[in-house]
């Protein structure tokens, strides 16, 4: 599989934090992602009251939308600003507490308890900390993860998913020799080999 010059590209946590600080967040969708609306029935599969995971959640508006439907939402994001912006933009009261298992990490939880957002590296999470999930909405995580870390990311996701869980994954298709990413190009063949 040819992913061009992207294979060795690395975006540091500092670069992601800087994107949030500078407001360079073209990946954020103010109205929510149209593909989640289109395929919501596939993700939920007739189930209600699900635990839904948002890897690299940013301030995704879909988190409130799904919580308002009665689901429990858990997200992880390196940028504390993104998480605080999420709560502020939706006028949601929240409390903040340290995560004892992860040095320097915080959990921001809506006072209703339906939304828990972890501020840390996704790789610091485990099912012993966040539990397991019935559904995953990956609208920009796999394409944001450094190409060399994809297997690590997918392995983590597999440990966080319940047996009958579903994952809705959004990728982008383009010539990887013309754009250095992120978002990174993840060919369908690689998605199949990663997820089996």
TrEMBL record:
It catalyses: S-adenosyl-L-methionine + a thiopurine = S-adenosyl-L-homocysteine + a thiopurine S-methylether. Its EC number is 2.1.1.67. The keyword Repeat does not apply. It is found in: Cytoplasm. One of its GO terms (molecular function) is thiopurine S-methyltransferase activity. S-adenosyl-L-methionine binds at residues 16-27, 56, 77, 121-122, 139. Keywords: Cytoplasm, Methyltransferase, S-adenosyl-L-methionine, Transferase. SUPFAM superfamilies: S-adenosyl-L-methionine-dependent methyltransferases. GO terms for cellular component: cytoplasm. Its main location: cytoplasm. InterPro entries: SAM-dependent_MTases_sf (IPR029063), Thiopurine_S-MeTrfase (IPR025835), TPMT (IPR008854). GO terms for biological process: methylation. Pfam families: TPMT (PF05724). It is an enzyme of class 2 (transferase). Belongs to the class I-like SAM-binding methyltransferase superfamily. TPMT family. This is thiopurine S-methyltransferase. The lineage of its organism: Eukaryota, Metazoa, Chordata, Craniata, Vertebrata.
């Amino acid at each position: 599989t040819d992913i061009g010059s992207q294979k060795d590209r690395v975006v540091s946590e500092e670069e992601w934090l800087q994107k949030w600080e500078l407001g360079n967040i073209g990946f954020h969708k103010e109205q929510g992602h149209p593909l989640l609306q289109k395929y919501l029935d596939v993700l939920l599969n007739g189930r209600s009251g699900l635990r839904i995971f948002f890897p690299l959640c940013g301030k995704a508006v879909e988190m409130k939308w799904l919580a308002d439907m009665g689901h429990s939402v858990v997200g992880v994001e390196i940028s504390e600003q993104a998480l605080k912006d999420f709560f502020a933009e939706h006028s949601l009261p929240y409390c903040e507490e340290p995560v004892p298992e992860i040095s320097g990490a915080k959990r921001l939880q809506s006072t209703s308890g339906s939304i828990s957002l972890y501020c840390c590296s996704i790789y610091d999470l485990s099912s012993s900390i966040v539990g397991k999930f019935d559904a995953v909405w990956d609208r920009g995580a796999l394409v944001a993860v450094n190409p060399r870390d994809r297997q690590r990311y997918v392995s983590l996701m597999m440990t966080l998913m319940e047996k009958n869980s579903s994952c809705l994954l959004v990728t982008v298709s383009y010539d990887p020799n013309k754009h250095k990413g992120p978002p990174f190009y993840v060919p369908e063949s690689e998605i199949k080999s990663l997820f089996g």
